[in-house]
Amino acid sequence: MNSILVLHGPNLNLLGTRQPEVYGTTTLEMVNSACVAHGQSRGLSVVCLQSNHEGALVDAIHAAKGVHVGIVLNAGAYTHTSIALRDALSSVELPVVEVHLSNIHARESFRHVSHIAPVALGQICGFGAQGYLLALDALAEHLAARNA
User: Which of 27, 68, 126, 134 could bridge across to 16 with cysteines, CB 3.0–4.6 Å?
Assistant: First the structure.
Protein backbone atom coordinates (compact mmCIF):
# COMPACT_ATOMS: atom_id res chain seq x y z
CA MET A 1 0.00 0.00 0.00
CA ASN A 2 1.34 3.44 -0.94
CA SER A 3 2.14 5.65 2.04
CA ILE A 4 1.47 9.39 2.30
CA LEU A 5 3.02 11.70 4.88
CA VAL A 6 0.61 14.31 6.25
CA LEU A 7 2.80 16.98 7.79
CA HIS A 8 1.45 19.73 10.03
CA GLY A 9 3.49 22.79 10.90
CA PRO A 10 3.56 25.25 13.78
CA ASN A 11 0.55 25.93 15.98
CA LEU A 12 -1.55 23.23 14.34
CA ASN A 13 -1.31 21.26 17.58
CA LEU A 14 -3.71 23.92 18.94
CA LEU A 15 -6.46 23.21 16.40
CA GLY A 16 -9.89 23.24 17.95
CA THR A 17 -8.99 25.92 20.49
CA ARG A 18 -6.84 28.42 18.56
CA GLN A 19 -8.92 31.08 16.82
CA PRO A 20 -11.88 28.78 16.09
CA GLU A 21 -13.50 31.57 14.07
CA VAL A 22 -10.59 31.24 11.60
CA TYR A 23 -9.50 27.61 11.93
CA GLY A 24 -12.67 25.87 13.14
CA THR A 25 -13.27 23.59 16.10
CA THR A 26 -11.87 20.38 14.63
CA THR A 27 -8.86 19.18 16.62
CA LEU A 28 -5.60 17.91 15.14
CA GLU A 29 -6.44 14.42 16.41
CA MET A 30 -9.73 14.58 14.51
CA VAL A 31 -7.94 15.75 11.35
CA ASN A 32 -5.41 12.94 11.65
CA SER A 33 -8.09 10.29 12.21
CA ALA A 34 -10.04 11.55 9.20
CA CYS A 35 -6.88 11.49 7.06
CA VAL A 36 -6.03 7.92 8.05
CA ALA A 37 -9.59 6.71 7.38
CA HIS A 38 -9.89 8.60 4.10
CA GLY A 39 -6.48 7.38 2.98
CA GLN A 40 -7.52 3.78 3.63
CA SER A 41 -10.63 4.31 1.51
CA ARG A 42 -8.31 5.43 -1.32
CA GLY A 43 -5.87 2.54 -0.85
CA LEU A 44 -3.30 4.71 0.91
CA SER A 45 -1.52 4.34 4.20
CA VAL A 46 -1.33 7.72 5.96
CA VAL A 47 1.26 8.76 8.53
CA CYS A 48 0.66 12.06 10.34
CA LEU A 49 3.26 14.22 12.05
CA GLN A 50 3.13 17.70 13.59
CA SER A 51 5.99 19.91 14.73
CA ASN A 52 6.38 23.52 15.74
CA HIS A 53 10.05 23.38 14.73
CA GLU A 54 11.23 24.13 11.20
CA GLY A 55 14.20 21.78 11.40
CA ALA A 56 12.02 18.88 12.53
CA LEU A 57 9.76 19.48 9.53
CA VAL A 58 12.79 19.53 7.21
CA ASP A 59 14.02 16.29 8.79
CA ALA A 60 10.59 14.67 8.28
CA ILE A 61 10.57 15.71 4.62
CA HIS A 62 14.06 14.28 4.11
CA ALA A 63 13.08 11.02 5.86
CA ALA A 64 10.01 10.71 3.59
CA LYS A 65 12.11 9.90 0.52
CA GLY A 66 11.99 6.18 -0.16
CA VAL A 67 9.30 5.66 2.52
CA HIS A 68 6.34 7.71 1.31
CA VAL A 69 5.08 8.35 -2.22
CA GLY A 70 3.74 11.83 -1.50
CA ILE A 71 3.29 14.56 1.08
CA VAL A 72 0.34 16.63 2.22
CA LEU A 73 1.80 19.71 3.88
CA ASN A 74 0.21 22.40 5.98
CA ALA A 75 3.33 24.38 6.82
CA GLY A 76 1.35 27.00 8.73
CA ALA A 77 3.24 30.29 9.01
CA TYR A 78 6.38 28.65 7.60
CA THR A 79 4.58 28.68 4.24
CA HIS A 80 5.31 32.38 4.02
CA THR A 81 8.85 32.39 5.40
CA SER A 82 10.68 29.10 4.93
CA ILE A 83 13.03 28.64 2.02
CA ALA A 84 14.37 25.63 3.95
CA LEU A 85 11.05 23.78 3.62
CA ARG A 86 10.82 24.65 -0.06
CA ASP A 87 14.37 23.39 -0.65
CA ALA A 88 13.69 20.19 1.30
CA LEU A 89 10.59 19.48 -0.80
CA SER A 90 12.54 20.11 -4.00
CA SER A 91 15.32 17.83 -2.81
CA VAL A 92 13.19 14.76 -2.11
CA GLU A 93 11.30 15.03 -5.41
CA LEU A 94 8.02 13.70 -3.99
CA PRO A 95 4.67 15.09 -5.10
CA VAL A 96 3.32 17.49 -2.49
CA VAL A 97 -0.04 19.17 -2.03
CA GLU A 98 -0.07 22.34 0.07
CA VAL A 99 -3.04 22.71 2.45
CA HIS A 100 -4.35 25.61 4.52
CA LEU A 101 -7.47 25.54 6.66
CA SER A 102 -8.28 29.20 5.99
CA ASN A 103 -8.26 31.03 2.68
CA ILE A 104 -4.81 32.59 2.92
CA HIS A 105 -5.59 34.80 -0.09
CA ALA A 106 -8.46 36.47 1.77
CA ARG A 107 -6.35 37.28 4.82
CA GLU A 108 -3.42 39.59 5.55
CA SER A 109 -1.24 40.37 2.54
CA PHE A 110 1.83 38.64 4.02
CA ARG A 111 -0.13 35.37 3.89
CA HIS A 112 -0.67 35.69 0.13
CA VAL A 113 2.91 34.59 -0.63
CA SER A 114 3.72 30.89 -0.45
CA HIS A 115 7.25 29.57 -0.80
CA ILE A 116 5.75 26.06 -0.99
CA ALA A 117 3.36 26.59 -3.91
CA PRO A 118 6.02 26.72 -6.66
CA VAL A 119 7.23 23.20 -5.75
CA ALA A 120 3.77 21.73 -5.06
CA LEU A 121 1.32 19.98 -7.37
CA GLY A 122 -1.28 22.41 -6.09
CA GLN A 123 -2.65 24.36 -3.17
CA ILE A 124 -5.93 23.79 -1.34
CA CYS A 125 -7.07 26.51 1.02
CA GLY A 126 -10.21 27.77 2.66
CA PHE A 127 -12.08 24.49 3.11
CA GLY A 128 -11.12 23.79 6.71
CA ALA A 129 -10.20 20.25 7.65
CA GLN A 130 -11.88 18.99 4.46
CA GLY A 131 -8.85 20.40 2.62
CA TYR A 132 -6.69 17.55 3.89
CA LEU A 133 -9.07 14.99 2.40
CA LEU A 134 -9.17 16.88 -0.88
CA ALA A 135 -5.36 16.85 -0.87
CA LEU A 136 -5.31 13.08 -0.33
CA ASP A 137 -7.73 12.68 -3.24
CA ALA A 138 -5.52 14.87 -5.42
CA LEU A 139 -2.43 12.82 -4.53
CA ALA A 140 -4.27 9.53 -5.13
CA GLU A 141 -5.38 10.72 -8.58
CA HIS A 142 -1.89 12.02 -9.39
CA LEU A 143 -0.29 8.72 -8.37
CA ALA A 144 -2.84 6.69 -10.34
CA ALA A 145 -2.21 8.76 -13.47
CA ARG A 146 1.55 8.52 -13.02
CA ASN A 147 1.38 4.75 -12.64
CA ALA A 148 -1.08 4.19 -15.51
Answer: 27
Percent of the chain whose predicted confidence (pLDDT) is above 70:
99
Q: Residue 52 sits in which domain range?
A: 2-147
Number of domains the chain is built from: 1
What is the band of 95 on the pLDDT scale with cuts at 50, 70, 90?
very high
Catalytic residue among 8, 38, 68, 100: 100
Q: Is 23 a catalytic residue?
A: yes
Classify residue 121 by burial, with Cβ atoms within 10 Å: 0-12, 13-18, 19+. middle
CATH number for position 51: 3.40.50.9100
Helix (H, G, I), strand (E, B) or coil at 44: strand
Is 0.90 topped by the overall pTM?
Answer: yes
Examine the pLDDT at 1 and tell me if it is beyond 90.
no
C-beta of residue 54 within 8 angstroms of C-beta of residue 76: no
The rounded distance, in Å, linking the Cα atoms of 136 and 48 is 12
